[in-house]
Fold this protein.
Amino acid sequence: MTPKAIILTADEVRRALTRIAHEIVERNKGAENLALIGIHTRGIPLAERLARKLEDLEGVSIPTGMLDITLYRDDLSEVAHQPIIRETQVPFDLARRRVVLVDDVLYTGRTVRSALDALIDLGRPEGIQLAVLVDRGHRELPIRADYVGKNLPTARSEMVKVKLTETDGVDVVELHDMPEERP
Amino acid sequence: MTAPTTAGTRPRHLLDFADWTPERLTALLDNADTMSQVLDRPVRKVPALQGLTVCTAFFENSTRTRVSFELAARRMSADVVSFAAGASSLNKGESLRDTVEVLTAYKVDAYVVRHPASGAAHLVARYSGKPVINAGDGRRAHPTQALLDAYTIRQEFGSLEGKTVAILGDIRHSRVARSNAELLPKLGARVRLCGPATLLPADLAALPGVTVTTDPREAVRGAHAVMALRLQQERMSGGYLASLAEYADHYQVNARLLREAEPGAIVLHPGPMNRDLEISSDVADGEQSRILRQVENGQAVRMSVLYHLLVGRE
């Protein structure tokens, strides 16, 4: 499917993540006691990339984890098929850590709400912040990101596709028209 | 009776394994891994089944299976209503059909049914129109027990492919043996059923991947998992056995018999155990025993079954 626009090229993705890493350091006055947790699927490689950038900037090791929010979704009775449950892996104690949740696109806010519930069931972090590569608007819940790679006003009939080298072989963010539903 | 299942690839009930493909079964066991992680966390609860009501309808005594299902449903945030036949209007002559229709009118979303009659879970599925999980019906099926057995073996060896599982004891009366004989070959394992000739129905040998034998050494030789079944002493009045002592002499799973198995073989038992009858105490409590692991795994597997049947629309 051909995109109607390229929102971020590979270089722009890299620069956006570098900027977010600097903002995280500035806001947290360093990187001590930070942890990054990516939301399946593309939040995970983004969290890992951010962790590497933070380590380069601050010279400290940043633990990363992965979070699957399937069992916390509030629309499980509406999905057409049984969702696949993927692995949640947070191999460090959350207590006294400032956690940065990382996802690719922020849209209605429901995924983030589920992620907050899931995270709090795993432990009690000192604080939780949110980093996203793209904020496309249309929030249905009072949630906002602390770090945004690109603010992108969209129509609901549009679709934002984030492709990453680790999952898709290429770094790019594309805008598509939503495919029409077949009768 | 035809099982009242929905057409298509997604089974609506878990009555037996007839409608379940190996892919679906593997997905179910994979998701049990996630459920198992949930049980290891400080908060052992997820909201996946919030707002749904599960009825455990037990027409036959059982503590461990009922508790395991009720905890599984509660861990997924479902409401649970428990129904025991002894204290019900069934004693006043109400039929199973009427009972189920009344419960369904109370907005029950799924049933877990244990019944002494084979096929009762099918009836509940037909009259409720809701997903039904068979928690043991007569001699016919006990699918979640077989799933947790499969899960425990998979956990030990990584896969069931190419594994041999010996099941010893009262095969004739055992719904656990029957369900395992249906399930394990679907997942790539071979099953050897073994017991005295009087307790060994020959028809099970017709199932793919299943052999039957009266020789326990032959059954256990090279096996990766050895399962002892409870000798149902209440059913032994029909002249099936000369004596319990003789039975124990020949068919008890003990250290001597276990030497025939693959090194590193594990020992299973669906419980409750008759210690030193069908299984020796030292083996039941020994290093190779995974009997308590089975109990633990039962909850995760049942959470996964509830999830598969109740989440998502058709």
About this structure: The longest strand of chain A covers residues 98-106. Chain A touches chain B through 24 residues (CB under 8 Å). Chain A has one domain: 5-176. The beta strands of chain A are 5-8, 34-39, 64-67, 98-106, 127-135, 147-151, 158-163, 172-177.
